[in-house]
Amino acid sequence: MQVFEVVELDEYPFMMTEEIHTGNIVKDVIKEDKVYLIVDHNLNRIWIYNGYKSTFKLQAFAIKLGDMLRAQLQLKYTVFTLNRYSQDHKTYKEIMGKNIGGGVAQSLETSDFLGMGDKSHLIKADVQIIPDIKVNDAIEYINEIPPPENFFRKFMLIGGNIYTDEEITEKFVTEEETIQKPLKLGRLNRGFTFFRGNYSTRLIIHDRKVQGIELYIHEKDKSEIESLEVNIPIFPEEKYSKPGSVDSLMNAFQIPDELPEED
Question: Which ranges of 42-194 would DSSP assign to H, the alpha helix?
Fold first, then answer.
């Protein structure tokens, strides 16, 4: 395994990587305010790991650097994100427990950006911000990714809709189980949206499409969770199937005794 740290620079190209040679296993060198590219030569994979305290800028740099490192390795490797697995997951434990050693991958230096020019003012977005996504598939994908440690999800924005988590008790033959399912609150309005509260935001991207935005609250603010609210106009979903009575239906077909006079 080779481990490369994503490094921010003050000038173009604003990013590079440094290979880490210290430590015996991957876990020894990981710092939660850093971002890393972990090259697995056995599986031909490049793992991106974002420390939970790392900046969004470093995480964005890692996507670009991961693609460049893949090109350096002649496209024989595939880029994956390690953050989609919880720390208790088998894959996470395996990667973090592997030995650090040498390999064919080389650190990405500023010279690797020569010929590209300083195009920092012309950033081509290859991520679709408002994709044509299937909401149910997006919810399923988002829920597969473990939440940040010690954080609770309060709201989730997908496809112009806003959701919150609702606890539902399901009864089985021998026991009851409480699970969380997304509850749709309604549709968001057009324009700017503001949220009141101490939220941490997580942006979920899959196949270069934004799947949704999650708003989290730290466990230390758990006592305030119930009082926090979304401070935006929400348009509730219209209910087309409402309970009614047969009498009301029949009355609708009754001809009145007196018809209104025509003007």
Answer: 56-72, 90-96, 135-144
Q: Looking at 12-16, 85-89, 187-191, which range is the least confident one?
A: 187-191
From the number of C-beta atoms within 10 Å of its C-beta (0-12, 13-18, 19+), residue 190 rates as exposed
Q: Cα–Cα distance between 120 and 57 in angstroms, integer?
A: 14
Closest CA to 138 of 194, 213, 192, 70: 213
How far apart CA 80 and CA 168 sit, in angstroms, is: 33
In angstroms, the CA 224 to CA 191 distance is 28
- Per residue in 173-200, pLDDT (tens digit) is 667 777 788 888 887 776 666 677 778 8
Residues whose CB falls within 8 Å of the CB of residue 118, separated by 6 or more in sequence, listed in order: 12, 13
Fold of the domain spanning 2-109: Severin (3.40.20)
- What is the SS3 assignment for 167? strand
Are the beta carbons of 35 and 48 closer than 8 angstroms?
Answer: yes
Helix, strand, or coil (residue 220): helix
Tokens representing 164 are 């919150």
Coil, helix or strand at residue 181: strand
